[in-house]
Amino acid sequence: MTKTAYIYVPAPSRRNLEIGINRGLWGWHRNTLDRATGRADVQSLQNGDFLVLAHVGPQARVPAGGWSSATLKRVFITQITRPHFEDSTPVWPDDVYPERIGIDVLDEETNVTGHTLGPEAAEALRLSANKQGSALVLPGTAALAQFATGLPAESDDESAPASAAPETINHDGADSALVQVLARREQTKLRKAMLNGATTFTCALCGRHLPVRFIRAAHIKRRSAATREERLKTANIMPACLLGCDELFEQGYVYVTAGGTIAVSDKANTTPHLAEAAKTLDGNHVADWSDHRAHFYAWHRDNIATN
Questions:
Q1: Which residue has the higher pLDDT, 274 or 185?
Q2: What is the rounded distance in angstroms from the CA atom of residue 220 to the CA atom of residue 236?
Q3: Which fold has domain 3-150?
Q4: Which stretches of sequence are listed as region Disordered (predicted)?
């Protein structure tokens, strides 16, 4: 069964939190995990399990349930990509934290209330705060699903899909559905920042001006290969339309040259109609090309279009 771990990060550890989030890594002192079942709990977490990091909350030494109306300044939902391992390579400035796990950040929210978190998650974070940041591990993802679906949906377009309702997650394959909800939330935030309130927008590849429901905020360097910082950089996001440009670029059938023009990859020769579709973009100048985007386009060119 999938597990969800909850960890509280106090205010003085803000810098460590930022580094861990950007590096996709979290770690503990050995003596923290020596307490009770701390190490066994962390070692029970596997790839695909979830981990919630919460930063800056109220006084932790309150009775059970005392965080039910609390507000936490920042909450990160992550998924484990590498189970417990030991490594003394320096990462954080104040200490080594050699017992580590690898994580992928799925979502970040600010000023999250205990009501939104739900009683189980809020209590787990309160207990973690009282145990010097130990992980409180709960079976399943019910509390996390309540949190994810309890957050307000963000949309810049009435026709855009809203966040999934709780019952959308609570079915067979619920964990993958939860990841999809969180990924859609990140995509919505990126679109909102890119569109900046516009109702129509221009595709960077074909130049067609379209209603925003046809425009995707596409990562130039793939999300799976980008760091947390790179994922959220506006320089790594381009407007690509759903009339074909988004998929042609995503699959590497077209790419952007060092000079900012579109070229057709040999991959497009799979079928005559695919080659014809890609050819319509050949030679176009990319509307959002600039020096600070060039290295992201170079990554796509070298790793997707020519491989």
A1: 274
A2: 5
A3: ph1033 like fold (3.10.590)
A4: 151-170
pLDDT value at residue 158: 39
Q: Which two tokens stand for residue 149?
A: 């679906």
- Is the model's pLDDT at 202 over the cut of 90? yes
Nearest to 305 by CA among 222, 240, 214: 222
Helix axes 174-195 and 142-150, enclosed angle (nearest 10): 20
pLDDT greater than 90 at residue 285: yes
Residue with tokens 């509280």: 8
Strand ranges in 223-290 using DSSP code E only, listed in sequence order: 237-241, 254-256, 262-264
pTM of the model: 0.78
Tokens of 133: 């940041």
What span, in angstroms and rounded, lies between the C-alpha atoms of 233 and 295? 13
| DSSP for 2-40, written as a single string | -EEEEEEE-GGGHHHHHHHHHHTEEEE-HHHHHSTTHHH
Segment 273-287 shows an average pLDDT of: 96
Task: Tell me if 124 sits within 8 A of 131, measured CB to CB.
Answer: no
Amino acid at 28: W
**Residue 107 in contact with residue 148, Cβ under 8 Å?**
yes
For residue 169, the model assigns a pLDDT of 47
d(CA 218, CA 249): 9
pLDDT value of position 153: 54
Locate CATH 3.10.590 in the chain. 3-150
For 174, list phi and psi in degrees, rounded to 5. -60, -35
